[in-house]
Amino acid sequence: MDATCTGSRSRDPGTMVIGHLSNSNLEAAKNIEADRLLFRGEPSFDPLLYLTEELRETFAGPETLRRPPPYAKAPHTRVRGSY
User: Fold this and answer.
1) What share of the chain is helix, strand, coil (3-state, %, to 5)?
2) Contacts of 5 (CB under 8 A, 6+ apart)
3) How many whole angstroms separate alpha carbon 19 and alpha carbon 3?
4) CB proximity list for 48: less than 8 A, separation 6 or greater
5) What would the pLDDT profile of 2-29 be if each residue is shown by its tens digit?
């Protein structure tokens, strides 16, 4: 029996079926429980060594990229919907 996958579901023409899962609801990782994370100390990685001069300036002072709003007051808007 030829186990080569055919049809529209195959992404790689050389793909071969080697088995089937009995349960398709498997997860490879657990959900993160944020309350269990504990960070100590300060980060020691310095990204400035890997940035261009322009990006270094942006990293050091991101507010320099801030633009003034296009208008002083937000325009009047109306939203309608139904359920």
Assistant:
1) 25, 0, 75
2) 15, 16, 17
3) 10
4) 56, 59, 60
5) 555 555 455 666 777 787 777 767 777 8
Could you identify the residue written with the tokens 């195959």? 10
- CA 3 to chain centroid, in Å, comes to 35
Nearest to 56 by CA among 64, 21, 20: 64
| The one-letter amino acid at 33 | E
∠ CA 41-42-44, rounded to 5°: 125
Cα separation, 48 vs 58, whole angstroms: 10
